[in-house]
Design brief:
The complex is a heterodimer of chains A (546) and B (431). By secondary structure, chain A is α+β, with helices and mostly antiparallel strands. Chain A is built from 17 helices and 20 strands. In chain B, helix 1 packs across helix 11 and helix 10 packs antiparallel against helix 11. The radius of gyration of chain B is 32 Å and the shape is elongated. The chains are: A alpha+beta (546), B alpha+beta (431).
Chain lengths: 546, 431
């Protein structure tokens, strides 16, 4: 009996071995052997952090969707190789204080061969603004006349200030002067949509690769949910001759930087982001580590609702004189490329001719323990308090955020004797608590949506919904309104310089750092554009070097 | 577990004076038991007496010594906020100032190079190392987590990748004026400060925020062992009383007790842990130690209750209990004189096995962020902190992990030995 059993086991084992060999032998080209770049087929392989929740350009909000959409759709304008605005579907354009006029290319077509018309843009923008679409990015259309009323359901969609003058001519009417409107047209919410296709699929539009239309350099040919996306060169794209990559394969979806790094190391993907723990390993392997400034600002936001201690200016000044962003960046975060922040405006914000921060350098305060304690005593007198109650610090749950929060907790305790309680929350919950005002101080971040200083400047205007601390300062509001309504660039930026100084002086927020991404890239892959705007990374102008 | 169900009255020598009896076998102190008991005691001493000997604040952050290895007390230069200025004409990449707060480098103009890129590598690392900066200036101040080791800086033409200069430097230990003031090493308002201050030693190094690992192991062990001992003490006592009553009284109460035990066993621990946290109104950022202990009390009592009930049930029907009852001993007397001494060894064994289990539960709950909250810590929370730097500084994870493993092992061996002794005792009675 024992013998027989042994033989059977042996047979099963060899059968299993046989099957394994067969599988390996029959499918040699499975992802296990995919290569990062393939010169012959001009294809590259990448990993995605997460699956995009939607690829509907009117509804998408996240960076992954922005990356995919920027490859498969093209707006009126797009960002060129060096981050400058160049013509997309629009061939030429004209902009003034009252509005903008775009002339579309005759040869711009959808992936089914039909021409892209001005009407497609009119439909897309009206569609995005409809209350039933519930687009979170509807506010980005507000510079267009009537957009706010349409979005709030007070006016019909066709009252929006945009109209198709002819098949190839589009006219946009502004609610107020909008010198940055051209960069808005490259944003994903401004992509065109074809009415017949969107209405045919209804809610299922852009839920699968075959349920949508493309007008960009690539089309989505494969979308296995949660597993695999493939972009291939669009044969109907008007400028297809300039593309030097014909296929972008994304067979891996993992948010773990360690897993992405291992894939890169094994030559399976062409690009991988690094985090602190992987830095030493990457250096040891001799990889060429690169960083790029992601343009987002991290800051401590104070709560100004009634009854909050943080509404007291002296209290905020005390923290300002205590917290040195350079120490946070160099000692706690410890990633090269991350910059200490001193201003509301990151270094990537453009000014009149060069970077805004070069034209108007920010006033720097020297951290000073004695001054900080004086301010705290003053706050105590002003508030009539003997001791400060514990404050609630709302923070994210990533390892870096936790470490950062522990640093603030220690610093405030040691330097000012304040008790700080750390409230760690996942992203969604944190946003919800911020909206409700359930915090004293929150570790927040803001990434720019369009290439203009206003994307940061109007953040703390009293009417902005994203002003989570309900900061309200008449001078701040006045400066933002002035800049929004001013047609003169020099006056706008001068007002913004005053605003920058006001933020240092009144401390509605305390900037901490400007984020950077560290990454490694396959040495044969060239021309990848890492950018703050218009989808990152961008492979439209990339090529593979032999 | 091979715990025999039957227990008898303590052995008593017969009254006949001329009969010789075998003495009950003495406890055997095997080496492993001695080692385990010693280790458990040492752990308790480490967390209770340790902080009196090693008087460092476990939450004090020495940001000038982030993630450092073991150090003895060193003198550090106090560095002001303004870096030293470079002098005269330079001919190569020059180190103007070099300490662990900043390395200030300057270099000459190079014909046809517009943008420079600066790399930093450790001395024995191959390659250029970490890219620090890229720009048009001709000087750079590196402040990025500098340690006392030799660094090699390489300056490269950013556009062509051609190496221009390279230099090595070993930064001297330093602390910024601001940090020295914050740590109370120099007065906050003094305009003049000493050139050097003495920094405390860190025998096991510091963690990613510059906190002394030894002091944190002691503080973390206190919360770990507190939970590890108090929680079992509570739930085993409760289980023993409840189970003992059920076994002795029998009938409806017994039925009720055992069905509620079945019910509690079916509850998922983690889910109830989270629910209790909310039910107790433990806000974010507050310590979860109390709900943790209460959750363990509410959810872990059935096993000891069942154990004791079985023991009491078996004892209750023994003739010596009947005879004691017939001689007029009160219920309380029977409990005290006959039942309690007989279930005590079983209780001890259950207790010593529950301790490592509770330590481990606390560690894993703190690891997933449900236990203690900063600034207090525990071994599990320290493991969670250390896992981020596992590749570069493994000590930050390995030390607390070793403490958990050692104490769990020690208490387990102790429990094993106690069980063996209890078994021998029962065996010895009949002889």
């Amino acid at each position: 009996m024992r013998e027989a059993k042994g033989i059977v086991t042996g047979k099963i084992a060899s059968a299993v071995m046989l099957i394994v060999f067969a599988v390996v032998g029959i499918f040699p080209g499975l992802p296990a052997q995919a290569s990062a770049v393939d010169l012959e087929s001009k294809s590259i392989t990448l990993a995605l952090a997460t699956e995009p929740p939607t690829l509907h350009s009117a509804r998408a909000t996240d960076t992954i969707a922005s990356f995919v959409i920027s490859h498969m759709m093209e707006g009126l304008l797009r960002y060129g190789e060096n981050g400058e605005l160049v013509g997309g579907v629009a061939e030429r354009w004209q902009i003034d204080e009252n509005g903008a006029r775009f002339w579309l290319r005759e040869n711009a077509t959808w992936s089914d061969g039909q021409a892209v018309t001005a009407q497609d843009f009119v439909f897309a923008w009206q569609y995005a603004l409809r209350p039933e679409t519930a687009s979170q990015y509807a506010f980005i259309f507000y510079p267009i006349k009537g957009a706010r009323a349409v979005n709030e359901g007070l006016a019909p969609p066709d009252s929006l200030g945009v109209r198709a003058v002819s098949r190839t001519e589009l006219y946009v009417e502004f609610a107020q002067p909008c010198p940055y409107f051209l960069s808005l047209t490259a944003f994903m919410s401004y992509m065109p949509l074809r009415q017949d296709v969107v209405e045919h699929w209804g809610r299922r539009y852009a839920a699968d690769a075959d349920k949508m239309l493309y007008n960009g350099p690539f089309t989505l040919t494969k979308w296995v949910h949660g597993a695999h996306l493939t972009l291939e060169k669009n044969p109907h794209y008007w400028d297809k001759s300039s593309l030097r990559i014909s296929r972008i394969d994304m067979p891996y979806i993992t948010a773990d930087p360690g897993a992405q790094f291992n894939l890169f190391r094994d030559g399976q993907i062409a690009l991988a982001n690094l985090d602190t723990g992987l830095l030493d390993e990457a250096v040891k392997r001799g990889y060429d580590i690169q960083h790029f400034h992601s343009g987002s600002l991290f800051f401590l936001e104070f709560n100004f609702r009634a009854g909050r201690i943080t509404a007291n200016r002296s209290f905020r000044k005390a923290i300002q004189y205590l917290l040195d962003p350079a120490v946070l960046v160099n000692k706690v975060i410890g990633l090269p490329g991350v910059l200490p922040a001193y201003s509301l405006f990151p270094v990537t914000v453009r000014g009149q001719r060069q970077a805004f921060r070069q034209e108007y350098p920010v006033r720097r305060l020297r951290q000073d323990l004695a001054v900080a304690r004086q301010y705290l005593d003053q706050a105590k007198r002003e508030l009539g308090l003997e001791v400060f109650p514990p404050l609630m610090l709302l923070a994210g749950d990533s390892p870096r955020a936790v470490q950062e929060a522990e640093y603030y907790q220690y610093l405030l305790k040691r330097g000012l004797g304040l008790d700080l309680r750390i409230d760690q929350q996942v992203f969604k919950q944190r946003i919800e608590k911020m909206r409700r005002g359930d915090f004293d101080i929150v570790v927040a971040a803001w990434g720019p949506d369009y290439d203009d200083i206003m994307t940061f400047a109007d953040l703390f205007a009293s009417w902005n919904d994203n002003n989570r601390g309900r900061y309200s300062h008449p001078e701040y509001d006045r400066l933002v309104r002035f800049a929004q309504n001013s047609a003169s660039a020099s006056q706008r930026f001068a007002a913004m310089a005053v605003l920058q100084d006001l933020v240092v002086d009144d401390v509605p927020i305390l900037p901490t750092y400007e984020n950077a991404m560290l990454y490694v890239q396959h040495p044969q892959l060239k021309g990848v554009r890492r950018s703050v705007f218009g989808g990152d990374p961008n492979f439209r102008d990339a090529w593979i070097e032999p | 577990m091979g715990i025999p169900v039957f227990r008898f009255a303590p052995w008593q020598p017969p009254i006949l004076p001329d009969v010789e009896c075998a003495a009950p076998p003495s406890w055997r102190w095997s080496p492993s038991l001695l080692a385990a008991a010693g280790t458990a005691m040492a752990m308790l001493l480490f967390v209770l007496v340790g902080p009196l000997v090693w008087q460092q604040d476990p939450s004090q952050q020495w940001l000038s010594q982030v993630s450092s290895g073991p150090t003895s007390g060193i003198y550090a230069r106090v560095v002001g906020p303004i870096p030293a200025k470079g002098t005269g004409n330079l001919s190569r990449l020059t180190v103007i100032e070099s300490n662990t707060e900043r390395v200030h480098l300057a270099w000459p103009e190079v014909v046809s190079v517009e943008r420079f890129r600066l790399y930093r590598a450790k001395q024995h690392q191959s390659g250029k190392g970490l890219p620090l900066w890229q720009g048009r200036d001709r000087s750079y101040t590196d402040e990025l987590q500098l340690r006392r080791q030799i660094y090699r800086y390489t300056l490269v033409d950013a556009d062509t990748g051609i190496m221009l200069f390279s230099t090595e430097t070993r930064p001297e230990p330093a602390i910024s004026v601001f940090e020295a003031q914050l740590q109370g090493l120099i007065p906050a308002s003094a305009a003049v400060y000493p050139e050097y201050v003495r920094l405390p030693a860190h025998p096991l190094g510091t963690d990613a925020l510059g906190r002394d690992i030894l002091a944190r192991l002691m503080a973390g062990g206190r919360s770990s062992l507190f939970v590890g001992i108090v929680a079992p003490l509570l739930f085993i006592s409760f289980g023993a009383i409840f189970g003992g009553l059920a076994g002795y009284l029998g009938g409806k109460f017994d039925h009720f007790a055992m069905r509620s035990a079945d019910f509690v066993v079916a509850l998922p621990f983690l889910l109830f842990m989270i629910l209790l946290r909310i039910a107790f109104g433990i806000g974010p950022g507050e310590d979860g130690i109390l709900p943790l202990i209460l959750a363990m009390l509410l959810l872990s009592w059935p096993s000891s209750a069942r154990l004791i009930r079985g023991q009491v049930l078996a004892l209750r029907s023994q003739p010596f209990i009947d005879s004691a009852r017939l001689s007029g001993v009160t219920t309380w007397g029977i409990f005290r004189r006959h039942i309690f001494p007989n279930v005590l060894p079983v209780l001890m064994v259950a207790f010593s096995f529950a301790i490592p289990q509770a330590i481990f539960t606390e560690a894993f709950l703190s690891f997933i962020g449900m236990g203690v909250s900063p600034p207090s810590t525990s071994w599990g929370a320290m493991c969670n902190d250390g896992i981020k730097t596992l590749l570069s500084h493994p000590g930050q994870l390995l030390w607390p992990a070793a403490m958990i493993s050692i104490s769990v092992l020690a208490f387990n061996i102790l429990g094993d030995a106690l069980r063996d002794t209890a078994d021998k005792r029962s065996g010895g009675v009949g002889q």
